[in-house]
Amino acid sequence: MVRSDARDNRERILAAARAALTEDGHTSMNQVAQRAGVGAGTLYRNFPTREALLLGVYQDEVARIVELVPELLATMPAVDALRRWTTELVAAMRRKHGLGDALSAGAHQAISERTHGPVLAAITALLDAGKAAGAVRTDADPGDFLQFTGALWRADAGPEDRSPRMLALLLDGLRPAADR
């Protein structure tokens, strides 16, 4: 069992790293430790390398997004929940993409292996809720939807972010034929 202070330190490190790396992808490990209010030893005990820290930040982000599904489905219609969740996923994927130069090919593979299943399960839950409500076509496939999200996070996020318009087209295509 992890002590509460150790768990709190890890959470502070991840939060500080996420904020620092969003501002500057070249933030040093020492800068992250200072920002988190922990010593270098605590940082390196939790994350022995920069790559381990980057992986931790990304995994934490994916876990947060996956954990949103039940709350979204409890508070809004399934298609609205899918839209909101996908928007969160796209933002996280863009942040991960920004870390690309800092991660080795092995790290990219590790990210995919650790996050693919949970993300696919979240999409499945959202699509199944939409199907049960009659708002999503019955042949909608979670794997296909995940592939389409790749186009969304690669879309130009400049002054006129195209991803919301593209997501609207995707969601329109998920409606049952009688509703299109």
From TrEMBL:
Gene3D superfamilies: Tetracycline Repressor, domain 2
UniProt keyword list: DNA-binding, Transcription, Transcription regulation
One family name in Pfam for this protein: TetR_C_43
Source superkingdom: Bacteria
GO molecular function terms noted in the UniProt entry: DNA-binding transcription factor activity; transcription cis-regulatory region binding
The HTH tetR-type domain, residue ranges: 7-65
Location of the DNA-binding region in this protein: 28-47
PANTHER family per the UniProt record, alphabetical: HTH-TYPE TRANSCRIPTIONAL REGULATOR BETI (PTHR30055:SF234), HTH-TYPE TRANSCRIPTIONAL REGULATOR RUTR (PTHR30055)
Protein name per its UniProtKB record: TetR family transcriptional regulator
